[in-house]
């Protein structure tokens, strides 16, 4: 399974970018994006930024990763997915 991380661009030369997520930094390719500026949130898969994220989407992905981590450690993961209770999950626009 491949997970994407919601990382923030710290510095870039428009080909690669130094990105940060929590206390980890890594250099990733930004060649799939057009002019991703410093401070932008990006979704990173296998050291490649695949798309820009807005603040809310980056936060939701980060919370989902926290929930997966809690579940993996045998903790209650319900609070991390409380927004899913009582509603059907919606497909992203590009999958509808």
From TrEMBL:
Alphabetical list of InterPro entries matching this protein: Hydrogenase_HupF/HypC
Molecular function terms, GO-annotated: carbon dioxide binding; iron ion binding
Domain of life: Bacteria
Gene Ontology BP terms: protein maturation
Signal peptide residue numbers: none
Pfam family, one: HupF_HypC
Family: Belongs to the HupF/HypC family.
Name recorded for this polypeptide: HypC/HybG/HupF family hydrogenase formation chaperone
Organism: Bradyrhizobium uaiense
Lineage summary: Bacteria, Pseudomonadati, Pseudomonadota, Alphaproteobacteria, Hyphomicrobiales
